[in-house]
């Protein structure tokens, strides 16, 4: 989590208390108070950039003097560049400043930007980018707080951050190691290369991540198809509407056995599906896939040791890094889990 601000002594007191509240709730925070900011420099230190790039949540505390900081505006641009990432959240806080002043860049903000434009006469595009970044972040849902009282606002922020982190951890835990595997499956699907109907099987033992992998692939490629369906085991499915006949369709048949597969294949044969359609079938039994016409079979590999460690730490500590006191337990869990994601997640609960 990355927290930043630019303000007077009262703002510093507010951010001190906010930071302390987040730290006491066991969040990993990076706090930027700009005390070492050089004049007219737009180059951020590497550890600033790393903190922004690795944070799940960025908290921006706007104050009346905020826009006077060149470093901070550059940092704000880096935060704004991630504003639409699904696993990154930006929370603006308006400390003793009207949100409309920030959103419309008037009063002290107008003066600060006018000064920057005088300094960067040969690089006005940089100032323009700062303006856009501020507008984008300031229009996000956040909090307005006057000088006092602070505590209620701080309590509300901690509650909301807790809620968001739980959502983010739930989302990212299952994603560890899946992006590279998803690329491999997508390559087997031969999208844009083969205009026929392609069938790809995903197989592996229970808990290896077949369903998660299929969901990642589905989310990535479904916009490329006229229609898409993710069908879980036991779900009744009928292609139904004739409007779909002959269209390119994506079907994911999850956790299928031999008894499920035969009627489904009869329903969605090559004569029904349009050119460019794709079928992905997940199963623990590779024999099921061998019984039917499969163009490719992808055997899901266990997590590497580094991936398993990252997954364990995200689940247990809400971080990519282990807590030093738990090193021995972590090593034992990783050895026992042997790269099986489900086992890693279940054993991580004992470290919570």
Characterization of the model:
- The protein is α/β, with parallel strands linked by helices and 352 residues long.
- It folds into 3 domains: 2-173, 3-Layer(aba) Sandwich (Rossmann fold); 185-297, Rossmann fold (3-Layer(aba) Sandwich), CATH 3.40.50; 305-351, no CATH class.
- 46% of the residues lie in helices and 14% in strands.
- It has 14 helices and 10 strands.
- It has helices at residues 9-24, 46-54, 70-80, 99-104, 108-119, 124-138, 151-173, 178-189, 210-221, 258-267, 286-290, 305-317, 327-337, 341-348; strands at residues 2-5, 30-32, 57-62, 89-95, 143-145, 198-203, 227-231, 249-253, 278-283, 296-299.
- The strands form 2 sheets. The chain has a 5-stranded parallel β-sheet with strand order 2-1-3-4-5, with helices on both faces. The chain has a 5-stranded parallel β-sheet with strand order 7-8-9-6-10.
- The two termini are 20 Å apart.
């Amino acid at each position: 989590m990355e927290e930043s601000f630019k303000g007077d002594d009262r703002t510093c007191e507010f951010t001190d208390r906010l930071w302390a509240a987040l730290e006491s709730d066991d969040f990993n925070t990076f706090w930027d108070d700009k005390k070492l900011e050089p004049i007219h420099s737009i180059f951020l230190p590497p550890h600033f950039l790393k903190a922004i790039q690795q944070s799940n949540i960025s908290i921006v505390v706007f104050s009346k003097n905020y826009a006077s900081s060149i470093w901070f505006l550059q940092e704000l641009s880096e935060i704004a560049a991630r504003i639409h990432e699904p696993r990154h959240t930006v929370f603006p806080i308006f400390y003793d400043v009207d949100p409309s002043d920030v959103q419309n860049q008037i009063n002290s903000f107008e003066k600060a930007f006018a000064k920057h434009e005088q300094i960067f006469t040969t690089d006005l595009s940089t100032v323009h980018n700062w303006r856009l970044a501020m507008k984008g972040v300031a229009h996000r849902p956040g909090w307005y707080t006057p000088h006092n009282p602070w505590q209620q606002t701080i309590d509300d922020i901690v509650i909301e951050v807790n809620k968001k982190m739980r959502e983010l951890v739930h989302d990212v835990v299952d994603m560890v190691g899946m992006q590279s595997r998803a690329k491999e499956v997508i390559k087997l699907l031969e999208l844009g290369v083969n205009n026929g109907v392609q069938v790809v099987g995903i197989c592996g033992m229970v808990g290896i991540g077949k369903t998660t992998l299929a969901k990642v692939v589905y989310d990535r490629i479904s916009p490329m198809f006229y229609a898409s369906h993710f069908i879980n085991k036991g779900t009744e499915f009928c292609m139904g509407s004739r409007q779909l006949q002959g269209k390119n369709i994506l079907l994911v048949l999850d956790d299928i056995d031999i008894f499920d597969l035969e009627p489904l294949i009869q329903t969605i044969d090559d004569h029904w599906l349009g050119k460019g359609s794709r079928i992905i079938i997940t199963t623990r039994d590779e024999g099921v896939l061998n019984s039917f016409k499969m163009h490719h079979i992808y055997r899901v590999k266990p997590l590497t040791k580094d991936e398993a460690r990252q997954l364990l730490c995200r689940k247990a500590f809400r971080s990519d890094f282990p807590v030093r006191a738990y090193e021995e337990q972590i090593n034992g869990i990783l050895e026992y889990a042997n790269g099986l994601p489900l086992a890693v997640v279940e054993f991580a609960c004992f470290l919570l």
